Amino acid sequence: MHTGGEPLRIITAGYPDIPGDNILSKRRYAKNHLDHLRRFLMFEPRGHYDMYGAILVPPSLPDADLAVLFIHNEGYSTMCGHAIMALGRYAIDYGLVKAMEPTTPVNIECPCGLVRAEVEVTNGQTGKVRFSSVPSFMFADDLELTLPDGRGFKTDIGYGGAFYAVLDAGQFDTEVTPDNVPKLTALSQEICQVVNDSITLAHPDHDDLAFLYGAILTDGRDAYGTVPTRNICVFAKNQVDRSPTGSGVSARLAIQHAKGLIKKGQTRPFESVIGSGFDGAVKEVTTCGPHPAIIASVTGQAHYSGTARFWHEDGDDVGRGFTVGSV
Description:
- Helices cover 19% and strands 35% of the residues.
- It has 327 residues and is of the alpha+beta class.
- It folds into 2 domains: 2-132, Diaminopimelate Epimerase, Chain A, domain 1 (Roll), CATH 3.10.310; 136-299, Diaminopimelate Epimerase, Chain A, domain 1 (Roll), CATH 3.10.310.10.
- Strands 10-11-12-13-14-16-17-18 form an 8-stranded mixed barrel.
- A hairpin with a 2-residue loop joins strand 8 (113-122) and strand 9.
- It is globular, with a radius of gyration of 19 Å.
- The two termini are 22 Å apart.
């Protein structure tokens, strides 16, 4: 499937059982013992540098209809909004959850916690998906940092199921356009390194959540409005999200709300570097440990793109998976 152009390879069979009492322990086990399968499925010749995947596992939370581990070019993320939208449709279309019109709830256990999705169903056909994520919050605001070449910049740090550095690309006289993706990717790599060298992240729920997932470079349109605000999310190992990034939209909404730029109940459009869109809103105001937080509501549309079966022949060392670099 894909959501706004961002791929999702859903692994439906063939993966070994992943032991663990909860989703985070399953994530650690997969990382430590089954990482060759992540490379096999995400990397060339079966995938590509920007491939993304979802491994379905038995849920441990009583309210969850299914549980998922997210995989990408570097490892295992804690939250993925575009995958939630795709999995919401998939769960109904493939009988994991019984369809109900006009909307069907699908509760998905993610490493960051329980994410509640609502799938539009009309005449038996699934459509758009809206999800309410885990509490999202601004961790730090207006940090003043310096790139290795001496250029200064300001960034916020937001959490939307994963931590991001969120900042205006205009500080570098760069627009968020497809032609500028190589430049934006290189900038994001430098920004993430500087942030990691400068601050220590922490999450009230679990240390496994306290890492910088990526950078989100925006067009600077943070104040509430009806015109889409565009961003590019570069995450993991310089992986470029083709969608607006569901967890990134959640983090942006949390920052905007903390700065008084959007109110509860207001909805605004977010746009990716290729022009695909999500709608984001502040659904509720809450807390997460010591942090004022929100529950973000994000809506988008996932589409099916095909099915595949993969195998590995004896003697095919290259076929175990390889990469040749980023964009």
